[in-house]
Amino acid sequence: MPSRLSGLSEWYRFSMNQGYQFYSVENYWRLTKGGLRPPPPKTIVLRHDVDVDIGAAKAMFSIEHQLGITSSYYFRLSTADLPLMRAIAASGGEASYHYEELATEAKTRKLRTIADVEARLQVIRERFSNNLQSLRSSTQLPMNTVAAHGDWMNRRLRLPNTAILESLELRLLARIAVEAYDADLLTFVTARYADKVCPVWWRAERIIQGESGGPRLLDVPQTPTEAVCAGIPVIYVVLHPEQWRRGPRLHFKEQVKRIREGLEYRFWKPMHDPATSKPHPVTREVRLKTKANVVL
Ligand SMILES: [Zn+2]
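^ Those are the sequences you sent over. The predicted structure of the assembly is below.
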């Protein structure tokens, strides 16, 4: 698939020419005083989830930096690129953590139900805190906001990684100002867009605070460009860099990884220690994966 980065660059320029101002999640949160004060009209919250392609993230950051745009980039442990993260922060943007400890634990331990996950939630939360602290130490960045990654395991369990942060105590201890999926962050957002693979390209949601206080979805312009044309006051855009410059090789590698994880999960049988007839506490596979999860 050819690069679509030039089209993205055009959208940035068009939006700026129409009077829109770009914000990172953290700066938007500050601007709205924690979701309490409306932002000025023509505001765009721009977020990138760096799932796979660090090179594409670098290319996007380069374009934005040249245009003076600041935004948020969330990195998984597997994509954390310390020089890039520091460069984003130095330019006034935000580089932080795209966390997935719940899905990782479910895959590693072969957890089958929500109850299985809930029984491990304390461990999962500790691992999240440790990984976040490790990233903060490595980068010397504050990482005041975080964003959950969406894994096939989350879809299978019907339980997002955001369940980790459904703990006020953890948020206070880990110094998390806001999670990128928090409803409070959307209080003044009119439309939210997330990029999708061809031929869909965009998922569009219009967000209006319902009588119950929660957001409800109505008709909305189908693309961010149309939203800018329509003068939508506050637009939230989520980009996945690999979808803008992805080659067949990268795509194939991801597919293989996804299939391998699925097969391991499906056909794994609990191992038993013959000496005690109890489930074997830690397999070699688990040890390796747990280690890989912590090391940056
Ligand atoms: Zn992700």
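Confidence is low (pLDDT under 50) at residues 211-217, 271-296. The chain has one domain: 5-294.

Shout if you want it in another format.
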